[in-house]
Write a structure and sequence with these properties.
Distance between the termini: 30 Å
Helix content: 55-70%
Strand content: under 5%
Number of strands: 0
Largest sheet: none
Radius of gyration: 17 Å
Length: about 110
């Protein structure tokens, strides 16, 4: 994996903030998705949730929608985690991407 110069790092942050899409960063820099993803993680400021808003929002959604219900109905844990995962990715509308994630991949 190649290293970024300070100018490339600034460009990376600008591109990512404009499009908020790791795939676009990978295309712009001509690298694979995993490399672009690791660059973005390292370029983001630690302990600054605004740089990682999609991850922070996902964690919040899981906490609000799933963990809260598990506390209320603990018997749901028997086999429901995989079902929740499928529902979250295949049926739940995500406002941040304005669609259902499974539709983006199909």
């Amino acid at each position: 994996m190649c290293r970024l110069t300070p100018d490339e790092r600034k460009t990376l942050v600008k591109v990512y903030k404009n499009c908020n899409n790791t795939s676009v960063v990978a295309l712009v820099f001509g690298v694979c998705f995993n490399t672009a993803s690791s660059w973005i993680r390292r370029a983001a400021h630690p302990y600054y949730p605004q740089d990682k808003e999609k991850v922070e929002r996902t964690i919040r959604n899981v906490a609000e929608e799933f963990i809260y219900l598990l506390k209320k109905f603990p018997e749901w844990l028997q086999g429901k985690l995989e079902e929740y995962h499928k529902w979250y990715n295949n049926k739940r509308y995500h406002r941040g991407i304005h669609t259902i994630p499974a539709e983006l991949l199909s």
